[in-house]
Amino acid sequence: MTAESTVPPPAGQPRAAERAVSVLAPRGPAAGRRLPAGPRGRRPRRISPVPLPLVDGGAALLGGLVVPGAVRYPLVIALLALGVMGLNRRACLYDTSLVRGVLDELPAVSGRIAVGWAAVAALSPLRPLPLTVLVGAFAVHCTAAFAGRAAVHGRRARRRRPSPALVVGPVSAARPVAAALLRQPGCGVRPVGLVTDPLDVLTGDGDGPELPVLTTDQETHRAVIQNGVATVLVVGTATRVERTALLRDLATYGCVLWELDADSPSYGLGGRREGAGHLAGFSRRLLSPDGGRRRVGVGKRVLDMVLSGSLLLLVCPVLLVCAVVLRVMDGPGVVFRQERIGKHGRPFTLLKFRTHRPASAHEAATRWSVANEQEMSRFCQFLRRTSLDELPQLWNVCRGDMSLVGPRPERPYFVAKFSQTYPYYPERHRMPTGITGLSQIHGLRGDTSIEDRCRFDNAYIDNWSLWQDICILVRTAILFVRPTGS
């Protein structure tokens, strides 16, 4: 989608009014309503996450001592321990908010230990060892890990008290959930209040305990301090979107956020997600109000830098030829610059080759537009059809304004308009915007449904992985030459 011609908006979309541009305020970590400062109360008591990694590291050391000659290769054993600990962390096996038994963890832990020893057998100086020795080391490693984990879990179970929790959602849904949790004290969570909107208090109802109903951020903040709340349970995706600012503040304060499916069973259709599981029979998954910033940042940025830098070097001759031809055919100003909205609502200047000249800057910023090929030269039409006009955005990726893969950035005016029309549209800015994305490889380009784009973009963010980025880039390369522009 671009802003270089002036055709009406797609069907069902709001038409741009002839008025000043409305700029969306940045949505950084400090954006939104903040919990008010108050007297320092007791903080939620945390269970230390250190013992389990120590147990896993010690178990790897014991397993290594069984191997003859392993003392000469301490780096191999250290890498084995770090690798197994990394796999366990990725599988949320160090999550202190979960109530687990050692039998529940047995398949996951033993599988990751097996992967670690398989790597040692295949890649390390210890690979000539007999299979029986490696199997014995694996058995000792597993036995030590399970014994240590059993001791840690047993000690935690004796000291654990139900964690105070707030349930966020409509009263009609939150109250039955709270009642179910109170009937299962062994689940490790004890609801102490319901957080809902003021209007819902008047219209909502539900069977369950008479817990305090909190309708303002100030009341929620007070409840967190007075009760030492460590867990927040969100009932309903719509509620999660509507209360994003409050949830972000609660996470900053130290609360663990979970989304519960209180309406219907998932039947296993959702696949495995990070932190997925159940709480008193309710399907749940871990929420990340910052859009997964910690797990996304490094790997995605490295991929962007390597690929965009390499592509810029490869396509330099193509860029030069396009710029010269545009300069000769269309005069000065071969690069089109336009303000777009990126991650957390921050504006940046997007670069493209100019294939059409808007009548004015106001028109370019406030008119929904796709390419009007009748008014373009054949060379500009060629740039559009092949998406060569997007190549200067590789520089935006190198600068960190964008990513190679992500939701397409839009102009401030339309970000504000679409955010009012589609409740989930602002959530697209949880991750860096991109040159291509899940929407684009599914044909959602140009004059297509904003609602569909929004759904695909948020699905991409919710299920992000580095492998998914690679797959999207491969599919984009296959579709690089296509009959319609972007």
Task: Kindly describe this structure.
The chain is of the alpha/beta class and 486 residues long. It has 3 domains: 51-159, no CATH class; 163-289, Rossmann fold (3-Layer(aba) Sandwich); 294-478, no CATH class. Helix content is 47%, strand content 11%. It has 17 helices and 11 strands. It has helices at residues 51-66, 74-90, 102-123, 131-159, 171-182, 198-203, 217-227, 237-242, 244-253, 293-330, 361-366, 378-386, 393-399, 412-421, 438-441, 450-462, 466-478, and strands at 163-168, 189-195, 213-214, 231-235, 256-261, 277-279, 282-286, 335-341, 347-353, 403-405, 434-436. It has a 7-stranded mixed beta sheet with strand order 3-2-1-4-5-7-6. A two-stranded antiparallel ribbon has the order 8-9. Strands 10-11 form a two-stranded parallel ribbon. Strand 8 (335-341) and strand 9 form a beta hairpin. Helix 1 runs antiparallel to helix 2, helix 2 (74-90) crosses helix 3 (102-123) and helix 10 packs antiparallel against helix 13. The longest helix has 38 residues, at 293-330. The chain is flat, with a radius of gyration of 27 Å. The termini are close together. Mean pLDDT is 77; it is low at 1-44 and 265-274.
Q: Tell me the Rg in angstroms.
A: 27 Å
> In what range is the share of β-strand residues?
5-15%
Which term fits the overall shape?
flat
Helicity range of the residues?
40-55%
Nutshell version of this structure?
The protein is built from 17 helices and 11 strands.
List the helices and strands and how they pair.
Layout: H1 51-66, H2 74-90, H3 102-123, H4 131-159, E1 163-168, H5 171-182, E2 189-195, H6 198-203, E3 213-214, H7 217-227, E4 231-235, H8 237-242, H9 244-253, E5 256-261, E6 277-279, E7 282-286, H10 293-330, E8 335-341, E9 347-353, H11 361-366, H12 378-386, H13 393-399, E10 403-405, H14 412-421, E11 434-436, H15 438-441, H16 450-462, H17 466-478
Parallel strand pairs: 1-2, 1-4, 2-3, 4-5, 10-11
Antiparallel strand pairs: 5-7, 6-7, 8-9
Helix pairs in contact: 1-2, 1-4, 2-3, 3-4, 10-13
